Automatic annotation (TrEMBL):
SMART domains: TPR. The keyword Repeat applies. This is Tetratricopeptide repeat protein. SUPFAM superfamilies: TPR-like. It holds the Pfam family TPR_2. InterPro entries: TPR-like_helical_dom_sf, TPR_2, TPR_rpt. It comes from Streptomyces longisporus. Keywords: Repeat, TPR repeat.
Length: 346
């Protein structure tokens, strides 16, 4: 049995904020409490308020501000001798590093966060940090390495009745199954995640689950209208909460659905929109995936074959550099699809 979803990253004076609070509201409240704590010289509260500020900036795509905020939160936590607060700051920094495509740094910071969380007796930050490590591996395509960790974290979250973390783990495992072609299993897991998130009033988790379901009904069933309807429902939640990254991924997925349906001009427009959104928040993985969809759409619309070859070769090199194995395999399939796999751009 799951209770209502909560946001453990909103701490101290901000612990009354909802998991569904608009990020602009979180940022305003966090900044206000941060200034008051700084004025009063309460380093522990500076760390806790600073964490909320860092997370609001990160989810709004304001990466420079997020980077400064998590580091300031960590310094305040260290000054206060608060090990758990140090762990939370490192978790935020590691999550930001993953968002920016700095995967080795993400793993290092999240590993340290898990260690400090255990040392500080905070089981939640330990779990979130291990989850971050699992997600980092999954995003890079290291499925076998992280599948067991995902399942371990799912069991722990179920045991504690923590809805938000259960939803995250279900979605992660579902994505692994989807990427390995096990569509029925993936659909069932995304469906369970959506149901738990809805009952727990976790709108962010629900939006991501709906996106996953839309992907499956598009690629497995060819049901374009249902997929688009699911994405529209998810988009409303993203806009209400100002979830910039989730909204950009929603638009990219809408492009995928339209591309599969042969509606290439519409897909092109969605990929262009998503690419601009990802660039605005300096999110390299999202940029790469949107560029790939855009390149494929333009090729279908008659783009010069040599230009397609050059774009895909450049994208393959970029993904190799970042370390995104699954996305690199997607580019390889696109090169084969358009008959440019053997062409080398110098």
């Amino acid at each position: 049995m799951y209770g209502k979803a909560f946001a453990p990253e909103y701490q101290g004076a901000l612990n009354t904020l909802s998991v569904n609070s608009s990020l602009t509201d979180v940022l305003a409240a966090g900044t206000r409490e941060l200034r008051a704590a700084e004025h009063a010289g309460r380093q522990g509260e500076v760390a806790r308020s600073g964490l909320a500020v860092a997370e609001a900036h990160r989810r709004l795509g304001q990466v420079g501000d997020a980077d400064r905020a998590w580091k300031a939160s960590y310094r305040a936590a260290r000054a206060a001798g608060d090990t758990a607060a140090m762990a939370w700051a490192l978790w935020s920094g590691g999550t930001l590093a993953r968002q920016r495509g700095a995967f080795p740094l993400a793993r290092r910071l999240l590993g340290l966060a898990a260690e400090l969380g255990e040392r500080g007796g905070d089981v939640v930050v330990r779990g979130y940090s291990l989850a971050g490590l699992a997600e980092t591996g999954r995003i890079q395509g290291d499925y076998e390495a992280v599948r067991r960790l995902h399942e371990q974290l799912l069991a722990e979250a179920r045991r504690r009745g923590e809805a938000r973390h259960t939803v995250w783990a279900l979605e992660g495992i579902a994505q692994i199954h989807r990427n390995t072609g096990e569509y029925d299993t993936a659909y069932a897991l995304f469906e369970e995640a959506a149901e738990i998130a809805a009952r727990a009033d976790d709108r962010r988790g629900h939006a991501w689950a709906l996106r996953g379901l839309a992907d499956i009904v598009s690629v497995r069933d060819g049901n374009v209208e249902r997929a688009l309807a699911l994405l529209s429902e998810a988009e409303r939640a993203c806009r209400a909460m100002k979830l910039s990254s989730a909204l950009a991924y929603n638009h990219k997925m809408r492009g995928n659905v339209l591309y599969r349906a042969g509606r290439w001009a519409e897909a092109r427009d969605l990929y262009e929109q998503a690419l601009a959104e990802f660039r605005a928040m300096s999110e390299p993985r999202g940029q790469a995936l949107a560029r790939l969809g855009l390149a494929k759409s333009l090729a279908r619309l008659g783009r010069d074959r040599a230009e397609t070859a050059a774009e895909l070769a450049e994208l393959a090199g970029e993904l190799e550099r970042i370390g995104l194995r699954h996305a690199r395999e997607m580019v390889a399939r696109a090169q084969q699809e358009f008959g440019v796999a053997a062409e080398v751009v110098r």
